[in-house]
What does this fold into?
Amino acid sequence: MTESEVQQTNTPNSKIKKFRKRIFHPITKKNKDEQQTSLLQEKKNKTEKPIRNEDYEATGFVIDPQDHLYQYWLGIISLAISYNFLLIPARYAFTELDKNYRYIWISLDYISDFIYLIDIFLQSRTGYFSHGLFVRNHHVLQRNYFLSRQFFAYDLLSIIPTDFLYFIPSFRFVSIIRSNRFIRVNRLSQFQELTESRTRFPNAFRIGVLSCLTLTLIHWNCCAYFLICEHLGFGSDEWVLPASAHNETVAMLYTYCFYWSTLLLSTIGDVPLPVTRSEYLFVLFDYMIGILIFATIIGNLGTMISTQNQSRQQVREKMDEIKRYMKFRSVNRKLESKVIKWLDYLYMNRQVLNEEMVLNSDLSGELRKDLAIKVHLESLQQVKLFNDCEPNLLVELVTKLKPTFFWSRRLCVVSDDGKTTFVVLKEGAVFGEISILNIPGSKNGSRRTANVKSLGYSDLYTLQKDDLWLVLDNYPESLAKIIEKGKSILRKDNLLDETLTDKKRHIEQDQLLSVQNRIKKLNDIDQSLNDRVTKFLNTYVDSVRLFKQQLSKLEYHYGARKPSISITSSVPSSTPALPFFANQWKQQSASNILKYRSSSFLDVD
It folds into this structure.
């Protein structure tokens, strides 16, 4: 190739590259900037409205979604929705049913419409949380609801009075024109979710909901089958109802259609083969719906059963692992039986219930306190040492209790050799309260004064010494009362050394503080000293500055100093002159403080 040909072949490529560099790259950068700007603007537009105190003030009747009244109302509106879902297609398919009880149906229709209207009013008065606070201003609630998508897309469309079409002869009392009432089905799902979260038998409730949904689909398919048979003509072929169906009652016709629909959707029975194209399409559609229903039912039931048996499976795996270990270590039969009985009680009867995990799960601090108070406060109040203490102290101690499992519901206080039984402790009894107090002057020190033996299975709640003293550190008055009560108990048993001086008692009492409390106390003292030194230095600097200003005024006034003229030199503006002198002054001040740190005027109490 010649040089001219090479240049001609390279020129278009170079032009394309330049074109891309000049055109596409700036556009891409510009588009990114525009996207970032639009995102920031969109974020600003989506910011929540400022908090107004008027929004949280109760101005009228407002429903709390967490209240049981709200759940009861959802049940009522669900009944009205279910009535429309079941009776509208049934009345449209079985015309004799609609004619025989027309006045009853019309009355029930308007009752359900009235319930729909009440539901609109109650939704406009349903409160919600904003910024963590419950909005109770009904004016704000109504404005937000009537401007929401829920009102326009669901509630308003579902209450349109289509019954006025009854005045048209061709639509006279045709129930299918009220099918817009189905749009309110979202309230039915809300009732399902709320009830499922509050019921104590969620699996049974889920099975009931699944059964109702299946029966509803079979009911709709039953009505559709009857309409197709009526359209094609009774007795026209083997697939439709026989010609004698004209003489049957509505109940008998509905029963046969429901039975046929159940066989077809469940795919477990033989039904007559379709003949016409429309019959084939209907059967094919039913088979597809039936497969989905069957798969949904089996999947949900399998999930429920596996969830229910999950804890039992975990227990079996743990017990099998322990059995394999005992077999590998050649544990004797007696000890193995004892271990298995204990595990059977711990896992099977207790269902592996970890109380600490439950209380420390997703519950808030206040809810954990309320739950612990409900369960343990009555037992803690039986301790004589805590009778006259502050209620808040008992509340904090309740949250510190930890569950421990032993062999029996009965415990006995025995001697050191375990042969002599002094007393039998039953449910609600308390022991070991003296040992965790570490009362100064106790002859036993922090050792226990008695031995406790379990006679079987028992559930105990223990209070650790560190947890007790961590709480008592905030209640000095209650601490003094508890110590005095402990001393009185020790005096009765002649276990208190009265010869200790108050100073020794104070030193011994300080030794009771945990390491964390000591570190906290030292940090507080250090912080207090730093604050006082900082305040002193700030006062010193301010006083020196004020003294220099006053001294300069006096010098100018009496002519001891004349105003000076400063000539600027060619120093770059970026030179940090002021920070340099400031740092130099700080270093000199620090050196002076270190130099005169032993002076008496810097001593602090």
User: Anything to note?
Assistant: The radius of gyration is 42 Å. Residues 372 and 399 are 6 Å apart (CA to CA).
